[in-house]
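Section 5: illustrative case.
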């Protein structure tokens, strides 16, 4: 997933915590690909439409993305 997000979406992997994956936007990041990115993440994490909307808002306002190293985003606070 780390290589895929970098090559396809311009999200560079910065680090890993005990349960978190931290990515930053690079110059290759294309906001027009955000819907495709969120659909792929939704397939992996199986998150709700509410979570989808929160992630979309987050990506439009921030230069980073933090994903949990778990099977679901529902246990992760996106605020």
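Designed sequence:
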């Amino acid at each position: 997933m780390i290589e895929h997000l970098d090559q396809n979406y311009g999200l560079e992997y910065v680090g890993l915590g005990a349960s978190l994956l931290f990515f930053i936007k690079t110059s290759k990041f294309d906001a027009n690909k955000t819907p495709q990115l969120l659909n792929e993440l939704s397939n992996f994490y199986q998150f709700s439409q509410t979570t989808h909307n929160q992630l979309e808002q987050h990506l439009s306002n921030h230069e980073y993305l933090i994903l949990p190293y778990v099977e679901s985003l529902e246990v992760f606070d996106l605020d």
